[in-house]
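Re: beginner question about structure tokens

> Can someone show what the tokenized structure looks like for a real chain? I only ever see the sequence side.

Sure, here's an example I had lying around. Input first:
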Amino acid sequence: MIGSIALMMWPATISAQQADAVGGAGIGLKPTADGRIVIERVAPDGPAAKAGILPGDWLVGVDRWAITELNGPQLVDAIRGPVGSKVVLVYVRGNAAPVSATVTRASLGAAPADPPAQPSVQPPAPSANPVKKPTAVPAAAKGTMRFTLQTIKDPAANNVSAVTFLLPQGWQFQGQIVWLHQFSVLANLRLRLWDTNTSTTIEWLPMQHFSYTDQLPGLLHPGDNWMGGIVAAPVTDPIQFVESFWTPQALPHLRNRRPTAREDFPGIARQAIANDRGWQAQAVRLRYAFERQDQPWEQDVCFTLAYAPVNAGVAMWNVQRAYTCFAPKGGLDARASHIKAVIANVNITPEWLATYSVVKQLQRQGFQQQMADTAAFGRKLQEYTAHIRQLGQQMHEERMKSFDRIAESQREYLGGVETYNDPYQRQAVYMPAGYREYWVNQKGEVVLSEQAGYNPNVGDVNDWRKMERRDPMRQ
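And the corresponding structure tokens:
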């Protein structure tokens, strides 16, 4: 399961007076050429100085987030907060081991304005996660729509191709794999796609495992990492889950808002726990309404909550398949089939899944510290190259066998999306319904047309082949 834990935290308990005053840690940060974030300045007698932080230390974590998981605005938001609230800064001095310091935020006088809490039309591109523009393709004829095949590579895993997806023409994206070696969910996908014309945006949300017990009073606290999961009592109300876990940071503009609609997907819930005996799950879509620049917007938050049977007083649960999409009011329904097709075609590669499996084995063997070192992590994975390649082929074959089951579930879940065969990759592709012609070329680009008899091979050097409709209910 993938996504990102970068924006997940427990909301601090603060007073109404504190909530009106934003404070900070009293530090100035500077990125370096090797990707580190150095603490360049420390305010005299400021919160960080009182906690023992010095200029020249370099920041590696904020609360439960690694620095690599946060872009510039998110890092600022993570450090800032209500005056009197606390934030944990994890830093390294010289070649010593990381040290954590609990800092009480204080008012530091005039400061630059915080980044807007509501989603922007054109998401900023963090330096470590550049915006990707689609490869140029011929202009689409009237009544046609083009998709280009995009790939996200994972530098930490020897630059293996990790994720592939189809990007509609006129859209942009930014994305990366984030490794979380201290958690049982070892990696998450951070992916955001947006239409430059309509501002319609799709974004993957943080996903994580949770654990809870009342058998260890005083030893475990909400937000602790216990057995690879965040300590939290099971939340069975999806609306409450959004309010508690995502509105503090990931979805601040939805704080204290009630959804205007809810839709449940029992088919997706069953699929999520198909191999887990005794588990229960619920898959939902919650629609919210909010205003941005005095204009009405709407947002869907889609996710699955799964719960294990309580065993010896221990409760295990998780959130998975989590993403959100938002647009000016009416935009989500108007472009529903295209949004669903984009979501359905995001695939994790067998090569990366094999790498993930090997890393999971290393974690069980106690390699967490070595895995936290990017260079050592890469060298360790190289030792397993042949095993990863063999495991990847095995996962590819298993994935091919499961296409029918996945396609059936996707059709039940998505609606307005039809399944087609890609003659090049020999796998299922999910396309918006309602077009007459569906074509794909050897590059993985797809073109749809409302015109009967449309042939993209005319005037194009690519070898376009027609995709045939596939019945996902067949055996």
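Each token stands for a local structural state, so reading them left to right follows the chain. Confidence is low (pLDDT under 50) at residues 1-20, 110-129, 133-140, 399-404.
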